[in-house]
């Protein structure tokens, strides 16, 4: 099985990029946040837990969550996108988990990935 094929396992395990764990530029807490996101990511490497859920489960403030997410994005381990709900009233942040640098994120279809993840969740 390839690393990119199974970042999430049904038994409750997830795969974490070892390069991140060895990266001294990223703080320990941001590494823990990355591991948390990996637990929510499906095979398309997309995680979109609600901010309220992250705050509840990790006991972190909104500003702390954004601090760690920005640190991970600045170092190339995740990519964040904001999406508004269909009624346009609330936004949800989507996190794309990066395992290697050879992925062309400009051509990655986030909308299609969300549809696939959503269908798997309710299907």
Q: For the largest beta sheet, what order do the strands appear in spatially? A: 1-3-2
What's the overall average pLDDT, rounded?
Answer: 75
Helix content: 40-55%
What is the correct CATH architecture?
Orthogonal Bundle
Assigned CATH superfamily: Winged helix-like DNA-binding domain superfamily/Winged helix DNA-binding domain
Number of domains: 1
Order of helices and strands: HHEHHEEH
In terms of DSSP E residues, the strand content is: 5-15%
Instruction: From the 3D structure, determine the CATH topology.
Output: Arc Repressor Mutant, subunit A
Structure overview:
- This protein has 123 residues and is an alpha+beta fold.
- It has a single domain (3-122), classed as Winged helix-like DNA-binding domain superfamily/Winged helix DNA-binding domain (Arc Repressor Mutant, subunit A, Orthogonal Bundle).
- It has helices spanning 18-21, 28-40, 51-58, 62-74, 110-122, and strands at 46-47, 78-84, 91-97.
- A three-stranded antiparallel sheet has the order 1-3-2, sandwiched between helices.
- Helix 2 crosses helix 4 (62-74).
- The two termini are 24 Å apart.
- The model is unreliable at 1-8 and 116-123 (pLDDT under 50).
Keyword list:
single chain; 123 residues; alpha+beta; Arc Repressor Mutant, subunit A; three-stranded antiparallel beta sheet; 3 strands; disordered N terminus; disordered C terminus
Q: Layout of helices and strands, plus pairs?
A:
Elements lengths: L17 H4 L6 H13 L5 E2 L3 H8 L3 H13 L3 E7 L6 E7 L12 H13 L1
Antiparallel strand pairs: 1-3, 2-3
């Amino acid at each position: 099985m390839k690393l990119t094929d199974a970042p999430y396992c049904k038994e409750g395990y997830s795969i974490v990029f070892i390069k991140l764990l060895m990266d001294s530029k990223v703080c320990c807490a941001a590494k823990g946040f990355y591991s948390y996101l990996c637990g929510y990511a499906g095979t398309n490497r997309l995680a979109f837990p609600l901010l309220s859920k992250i705050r509840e489960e990790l006991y972190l403030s909104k500003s702390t969550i954004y601090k760690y997410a920005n640190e991970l994005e600045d170092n190339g381990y995740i990519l964040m996108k904001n999406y508004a709900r269909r009624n346009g009233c609330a936004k949800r942040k989507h996190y794309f988990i990066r395992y290697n640098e050879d992925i062309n994120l400009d051509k990655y279809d986030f909308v299609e990935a969300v549809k696939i993840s959503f269908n798997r969740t309710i299907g």
